[in-house]
Amino acid sequence: MNPNMSETEEVVTRQTGTPPGSPAPSEDSAVYRRRTLTTGSRLGQFAWLAAGVVDLVLALDFILKLAGANITGFVAFIGGLASSLAAPFEGIFANHYVASGRVTQWADVVAIVVYTAAAWIVVRLIEIASTPRSRPSQV
Question: 15 and 24 in contact (C-beta within 8 Å)?
Answer without folding.
Answer: yes
